[in-house]
Design a protein that fits this description.
Radius of gyration: 12 Å
Strand content: under 5%
Protein name: DUF3791 domain-containing protein
Number of strands: 0
Structural class: mainly alpha
Number of helices: 5
Number of domains: 1
Order of helices and strands: HHHHH
Pfam family, one: DUF3791
């Protein structure tokens, strides 16, 4: 696994954990939500910008991304 892919994988894992803690749901629920709304692709595609943001900002941004997809 190259370094960039490893960094992205760690970042996505971090986002799952933070979203799970913020929403009070389990890991399986987060993975299901992220899969359904394309969050994994979003986090991977915009990793370069997103990984520089705070935990709070990331959770809010992910929530906004999901809500936009629900419309």
């Amino acid at each position: 696994m190259d370094k960039n892919l490893k960094d992205i994988t760690y970042f996505i894992s971090f986002c799952i954990e933070q979203y799970m803690n913020e929403k009070g749901i389990n890991e399986d629920e987060v993975i299901s939500i992220f899969s359904e709304y394309g969050v994994f692709d979003y986090l991977k595609d915009y990793f370069d910008v997103l990984h520089t943001q705070s935990r709070q900002w990331l959770v809010a941004d992910i929530e906004e991304f999901i809500n936009d997809r629900k419309k």
